[in-house]
Design goal:
Elements lengths: L2 H26 L4 H25 L1 H32 L3 H6 L5 H24 L4 H30 L1 H23 L2
Helix pairs in contact: 1-2, 1-5, 1-6, 1-7, 2-5, 2-6, 3-5, 3-7
């Protein structure tokens, strides 16, 4: 597979991660280097591991996973986006914002999983196309990590600049991504 095509696949897979990173950092407003690292690292790692899992799983499980993956992604992103909107309109103190850091714990794992589900299907195709899966997943992981980092920096700027309005917008973006994934799969 030519390098330019691999980069195109990696960028395409990373778009969800980029949008979610912007939404998350809007909520945080003042992101710390640790938060940026955690989200970038985990998004890149999950985006790199999911094609390996898809490649290893084979065709049988693909049909089973394809039946529910869009519902899982929709549910995770809608829950996290809804929580972000709720926090934005009901929060009274900045201290609460720190306690609800989406770059930690279950939120971090949920976001990482939700943004990397499409990479699983790409991994299935790697086996059929005789792609060097290790070279591909390293490229996908690095590109996703870099785009997530840029998204976090941009989202943090928007959050500081426009405050609660951008927090609500970030939550709506997460829900819209989940809804788009759900609708795309239902219309196939």
């Amino acid at each position: 597979m030519p390098f330019w095509l691999l980069v195109g696949i990696a960028v395409g897979l990373s778009m969800d991660a980029l949008a979610v990173a912007i939404g998350v950092s809007i909520k945080l407003r003042n992101t710390t280097p640790r938060q940026v690292f955690r989200l970038s690292f985990h998004f890149g790692l999950f985006q790199a591991l999911m094609p390996v899992l898809g490649w290893a799983t084979g065709q049988y499980a693909a049909a089973l996973v394809a039946q529910v993956d869009h519902w899982v992604v929709f549910g995770l992103l809608s829950f996290i986006g809804g929580r972000a909107i709720w926090d934005a309109v009901s929060q009274k103190e900045n201290q609460e914002r720190i306690l609800k850091d989406p770059t930690r714990g279950l939120s971090l794992v949920s976001l990482s999983l939700a943004t990397s589900m499409d990479a699983f299907a790409v991994g299935l195709s790697f086996g059929m196309l005789s792609v060097n899966v290790w070279y591909a997943v390293i490229s996908i992981g690095i590109i996703t990590g870099m785009l997530t980092l840029l998204g976090m920096l941009f989202g943090s700027f928007l959050g500081r600049r426009f405050g609660t309005v951008m927090e609500v917008a970030g939550g709506l973006i997460l829900i819209a991504i989940g809804l788009k994934i759900l609708v795309d799969h239902l219309l196939e």
